[in-house]
Amino acid sequence: MDQDNLSVVVHSAGNIRLENRPVPQPGPNEVLLRMHSVGICGSDVHYWQHGRIGDFVLKKPMVLGHEASGQVLKVGSAVEHLKPGDRVAIEPGVPREIDEFCKNGCYNLSPTIFFCATPPDDGNLCRYYVHNGNFCYKLPDNVTVFYLSGRHLCLLIFCCVQNSQFLSVGIHACRRAGVTLGSTVFVCGAGPIGLVSLLVAKAMGASQVVISDLSADRLKKAKELGADFAVQVQREAPQELAQKVEGLLGCMPEITIECTGAESCIQTGIYATRSGGVVVLVGLGPEMVNVPLVNAAVREVDIRGIFRYCNTWPMAIAMLASKKVDVKPLVTHRFPLEQALEAFETTRKGLGVKVMLKCDKSDQNP
């Protein structure tokens, strides 16, 4: 192991740098990882551009990145389920204490939770990173055997496992929405989260899924991934777009998964959803939005939020291992870690779907 721990660090709004940091050492419950691949999330770009997301404000330099996979190099004295050489997916949220939320199985809501690349906690967009061993999930052996292919050295595996992070968002959203066999679903937004929500909804048994977006290219990708209907948003009023959705499905959807955070899309989701149905708000937009609350109330449309995810990693990896979902088509761009600034600019411009950075110097296969 060399001492080159190149890291992507945001110092303030608009100020992102590549710099070397010390290689950390694991504590008793931690593992030291050689990072393999890290995806760029919209939140990473937001911290870079604005220095904050809501109440999470950048006050000191912070390593970005939380959509990650890596290989175990060292284990702490109390870690028994992992060993050097294991390939793992990294769940970025780790409870700091066993509070009431942890006891209820909602550790994502704990106010003191550690979360990669959320101030003040550093992320894992670097060469070497230490993480709690209990939140590192070993790659199943059967997946390794299935994907192992010549010189690619399980590259496809790492792509899939790294993507278990944003797949987890789709799982948590669909669980909160109650997607089940025969559900009719409307997904607002065909970005990475909207597309994985589409994939998960289909895997959970949704009979029909309609998805909307401004981008014709992203809607084309959605159709390739299994969307039954795609609606390109023009300049319609929310009620008009809701009527288009109903016309395509032949009924109002039971469930709407809103992945944009845009006020007009939230409004559309409420108007579109069947009475007694559910709207899940995944996208984060302005703190205050105008919504047709009375319309939702008198029709008993439940509006539910989600915050990150919890207890989703085993399901995400199982879905990938069993080929219930295939997220590889979502990875459209790959860059070596040294080209992180170019990768961030690609994401900021909205090019492609998911941009990944390759952190391991010994494996730079495309």
TrEMBL record:
<feature type="domain" description="Enoyl reductase (ER)">
    <location>
        <begin position="11"/>
        <end position="357"/>
    </location>
</feature>
<dbReference type="InterPro" id="IPR036291">
    <property type="entry name" value="NAD(P)-bd_dom_sf"/>
</dbReference>
<keyword id="KW-0862">Zinc</keyword>
<dbReference type="InterPro" id="IPR020843">
    <property type="entry name" value="ER"/>
</dbReference>
<comment type="similarity">
    <text>Belongs to the zinc-containing alcohol dehydrogenase family.</text>
</comment>
<dbReference type="InterPro" id="IPR013154">
    <property type="entry name" value="ADH-like_N"/>
</dbReference>
<dbReference type="InterPro" id="IPR002328">
    <property type="entry name" value="ADH_Zn_CS"/>
</dbReference>
<dbReference type="Pfam" id="PF00107">
    <property type="entry name" value="ADH_zinc_N"/>
</dbReference>
<dbReference type="InterPro" id="IPR013149">
    <property type="entry name" value="ADH-like_C"/>
</dbReference>
<dbReference type="InterPro" id="IPR045306">
    <property type="entry name" value="SDH-like"/>
</dbReference>
<dbReference type="InterPro" id="IPR011032">
    <property type="entry name" value="GroES-like_sf"/>
</dbReference>
<protein>
    <recommendedName>
        <fullName>Sorbitol dehydrogenase</fullName>
    </recommendedName>
</protein>
<keyword id="KW-0479">Metal-binding</keyword>
<dbReference type="Pfam" id="PF08240">
    <property type="entry name" value="ADH_N"/>
</dbReference>
<keyword id="KW-0560">Oxidoreductase</keyword>
